[in-house]
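Quarterly update from the structural biology core.
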Amino acid sequence: MTVAPRVAPAPEPPTALAASAVLAGALCLSISAILVKLAGVDAATTAVLRCAIAVIALVPLALFERRRHSGLSRSGILWAIAAGVALGIDYIAWTASIYLVGAGVATVLVNVQVIVLPLLALLIDRERVSVRFLISLPLMLIGVGLVGGIVSLAAVGENAVLGTVLALIAGIGYGVYMFLTRRGTRRKAEGAIQPLAWATASAALTAAVIAQFTGGIHLAGIGPRSWMYLIALALLGQVVAWLFINRGSARLVPSMTASLLLIQPVLALVLAALILGEKLTLGQALGAGLVVVAVAVANGVWRMRSHRHRQVIREPGSGPR
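Predicted structure, tokenized:
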């Protein structure tokens, strides 16, 4: 009797859909810096309007989620508000860095949050640091130094150092936001939209307060075209992106989500070159590449692939091809 060869089952549709959702969210995030530069509005005003417009869209969605499930607990609201403060700082610093080092480079640099998050977990929650984190840290630092113009400051412009510092501050704010959000949702899953709405409202208020010390908020000079780009930034970069990522990541293992989000800085560099005509020096290109590699190492992308490879080899009935 002939036994038919065993065929590996196809990936489950929910997993494929979840991966597609995360990729869609990454695409929305990667285009955010492009929209910021096309709008041409100052950093503080852009950060405030990005969050304020997003809140208008998020409130009805949050109310719908509350009716279907339940409202956030008091602790959940407080964690979301605290996370929003860090997010407001992130947005103002990141937007300013876009005008100094470019949309693509700023998006690459903000990914230092993958270093900030484990450090906070180590210092506050006493979580152990992985070997891949220790490997990625020097790569990240060297890459950031190259992007900031340490190799050739004259070649990248006098604003490179300031832009790099602001992008790093944004990355720290982003990492704190992720850490506080993680802490707030660790004990109880309370939905994805309500915490995002509270955090976005808190970020808008934080950005508005900071704006009073950086020249204020300027609404009068914003033209119709800039308003269009700002609305697209709020809806795509804040609402759609995070709803896609939050929904998709809930069905995927963290390492897969992290590897899929790696496409964000790569897409940002490509889009910035195609749409805005941004050009990198050789040192900046090498630095951006090192940052992307460091993010991949910190997220355990190659470890995940190696693990999958071992699973395929050990699967019963599978042999050499």
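Confidence is low (pLDDT under 50) at residues 7-13, 304-321.
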